[in-house]
Amino acid sequence: MRKLFVLSAFLAAAISTFVVFQTMQTIQYDYPLGTDDSFELLVGESTVPKDQLIDGLIQAVNKRGGCLVKPSTSAETYGSQRDLIYFSSVQPSSSSPVIGSDGSISWLTPGMGGKLLPAHTMGDSPLAGTYMLKSDQSLHEALDQWANENGVTITWYGQKPLRDEVLSIVVSGGMIIPWLSTQLLVLTLAMTWITLRLHTRAIQLLGGVTSAQIHRETLGILARLLAIGGTLGIALSGVLVTVVLGPANVLLVLPPTTILCLLSFACLLVLTYLLSVMVGTGMESLRFRRPVVGKILPLCRTISAVALVLSMQTIPPAISLAQRAWKSYTQSSIARCFGDTIAVSLNNFDYLDTEEGAQEAQRVMHGLSQKGCIVTSLVIDSEFEISNDERGGYSQLVIVDPSYLHLIGITLPTESGESVLTEVSFDSLPSATKDLLQESLSLWMGGEMAFKETFSFYEYHGDGLIALGQNASYNSAFTTCKNPLVIVMNVPVDKMSMTGFVVPFISTGNIMFTDPESTKEAFAASPIYPYIASFDRVADVTLTTSQDLLANVLLYLAITSVSLLSICACALQCASSWAIAHEEEVFLAHTAGLGYRGIYAPRMRSDLAFSMIPLVIGAGICIFVSPYSTPLVVMLGAIVVETCFALFSTLTYTIACRKTFTAHILREG
Questions:
Q1: In terms of residue numbers, what domain contains 626?
Q2: Which of 46, 145, 221, 368 fits a 20 to 30 Å CA distance from 493?
Q3: Is residue 380 domain-shared with residue 423, that is, in the same domain?
Q4: Is the pTM of this model over 0.85?
C-alpha cells in the first residue's frame, strides 16, 4: 500500500508538471513573446500590394513600440516547425518561447522548432490570418486607422491578461480536471490506507497511544510518502523535459511546478488529517469485531461521485475533439497535398478588363497551363445563391479541372476503374439544375466552345470531396462536400473566358498554381505584374490551425487517461472498504460455495445505481460549460463512463473479496 501511495504522489507531481507544461505551451501558441491581445486580418478586398501593407504595419509598430507577430507554417514543415513573423525593425526578445541568438525558436512542444522571421522575408506566407500583439491603446488605434486606409478588415478578439488566460486554460480548457483527478486519487488511497489500518490503530490506542498521536503518526507517514513520490515525480519530469525540450525550457517549467506541488500536497495533508479524525481510531471496529461501515462507505461513495463528475467533464469533450481532429486531419492531409501551391492576389482590374490585358492574361495562363501547374476548384454555391430545386438533390455544385482532382488523389472513371466518380448525362439532371448550369456556365466559357464538350458531369461516392469556396484559398477554409455534383472542365483553363472566369477566379483564389517559381517568373515578365498584390500559400492557415487542434486533442487524451485511472482507484477503494467491512459474510458465503460475483453483486448494483446521480449532474455541467460538447456526445460520454465504472467495479470487487477471503483463512490483518 505504501508503494501504491508513493506511486500516486509521483503521478500527482507528474500531472502537476503536465498541467504547468500544457498551460505554458498553450500560452506560447496563443500569446507568444509576452503578447496579450489578438486580431484576425482579412486582406481579400484590399487593392494595396502586399509589401506596402507590410511596410504600413511595421511603421505603426515602430512609432508606438510594442510587439506584433503572426504564426506561420508550411506543408513540408507542418509537423516540425512553427515560425513567428514579427512586424518591427527590432527583433523582439522573450523567455517564452525561448529565442536563440540565431533567431531559432524552442517551443514547449516535442519535435517542434521554428524561426523568428522579419516580415519582409515572409515570402508566400499569406498576410491574412491571426496576429498577436502587446496591448497598447495607441497601437490599437493606429492599426485600425491603417486598416481603414488600406481597405483591409481587422476583427479584434480583445485583450486577455495573463491571469485570465491561465484561468481560461486551466478551468474552461479542462486542465484543472486531470489535476483534480490525481489529487482525488491520492486522497482516495490515503483514505484506503487509513481504513486498512483501523485494527492496528485500535491496538495502538489500547497500548496507551493517544488518538492525537495516532493521527499525527498517520499524517507523518503519509507526508513522508508524499515527499518521496513528489520529489521523484518532479525530478523525473525535469529530466524528461530537459532531454526532450532542452535545459532552457526546463527552467521555465520546474519552478511553477514545484510551487504547485507544495501547495497541493499541503492541502492534501490537511484533508487527510480531517479524514483520519472522521474515520476514528478503530476502537468501535475492535469492539464490534468489524469496521464501522457507517463512517467509511459514505465517504467512499462521495469520493467516487466526485470522480465521476470530473470524468464527465473530460470524456465527452475528448470525443468531440476526436471528431474534430479527424475532420481537421482530413483537411490538413488535403492541405499537405497542396504543398507550396499558391494563390495570386490581384489589386487592380483596370488593365485586365481591357482587351490587351485579357490577351496578356491568356498568354500567361496558356504558358503555365502547358507546364501543368494550374489547378481550379470552386464551390459554385459560394459564388451565388442557389435554391434547393436548382441544386437538384445534391449537397453542392462544384466545378474543378482534372489537375485539381489529381492533386487531391481522385481519378476520373476513364483513368481508373476504381474511381469515386460516376459520370452522369447532363440531360438526366433535374430541369432546374440544367437551366441554372446552362445559364451560369455559358458565361464562363470562351469563344465558340460547345457546352457539352467543355464540361462533364459526375456524381461523387466517397467520404467527402474537399473543394474551395470563394476566397477560401486566402483563409484555407476548405469545404467538405458529402454529395456534390462534380463539374469537370474538359478544356485547359486558358480556353475559358478571361474576363468572365479566369481573372475573377484568380482574384478569389479558386484558380491556383502548383509551381510557385514558374508562376512568379511568368507574371514578373508580364505587364500584369504591377497589378499583383501578393503570392500566398494556400494551405498555410489550415496547417497552423491543425497544429493548435492537435495539441488540444493530445491534452484531452491525457486528461481522459487520468480520469479513467481515478475512476479505477475509487472503484478499488469502494470494493476494498466493503470487503473489509463484510469480512465474515464473504468468508462464510464463499465457504458455502457461493462465487465471489454472487457475494458482491447486490452491493455493486447499489453502487451502479448510485453512480447515475453524479453522472446526471456531470452531464448537465458538461452541456452548459464545455465548449466542445453536444447533448448526443455527452450521452455517449456518460455511457463510456458508466461502462468503465462497471468494469472496474467488477474487477476490483472480485480482487477485494478474494484477498479478504484469503486473509481470513491465513488470519492476517
A1: 315-335+539-669
A2: 46
A3: yes
A4: no
